Amino acid sequence: MLTAIEKKEMLEDGRSIKRRKQFAEAKKRVAKYSEHKKKSLDEYISFLTEIQKVFPFKVSRKKTITRFNKL
User: Fold this and answer.
1) Of the four, 31, 42, 47, 49, which is 20 to 30 A from 25 by CA?
2) pLDDT at position 48, please?
3) 0.70 cut: is pTM over it?
């Protein structure tokens, strides 16, 4: 289930023309790479790099405090 904050963010993304374009572009890129059933590692890395360009994220150097880690 989504939290109220996540729902609000999704609605805001839906209203934003810029975000709609980003999602549409990402969908095109995913479709491009999903045409091939078997991908090489290089192709997969290329795919992840393209997705990161569409959805950039900031790398945090802060420690994440957790109480329960399970691998």
Assistant:
1) 42
2) 81
3) no
> For residue 19, what are its two tokens?
């975000």
For residues 25 and 54, the answer to whether their CB atoms sit within 8 Å is yes
Neighbour tally for 7: CB within 10 Å: 11
Please name the residues in contact with 4: beta carbons below 8 A apart, sequence gap of 6 or more.
none
Q: Quick one: CA torsion of 5, 47, 58, 64, rounded to 10 degrees?
A: 70
pLDDT per residue over 30-46, tens digit each? 777 666 566 788 888 88
Cα–Cα separations (whole angstroms), residue 61 to 1, 37, 64:
29, 36, 9
**What is the per-residue pLDDT across 7-30, written as a single tens digit (0 to 9) for each?**
898 888 888 888 888 888 888 877
Q: What whole-number distance in Å separates Cα of residue 54 and Cα of residue 18?
A: 11
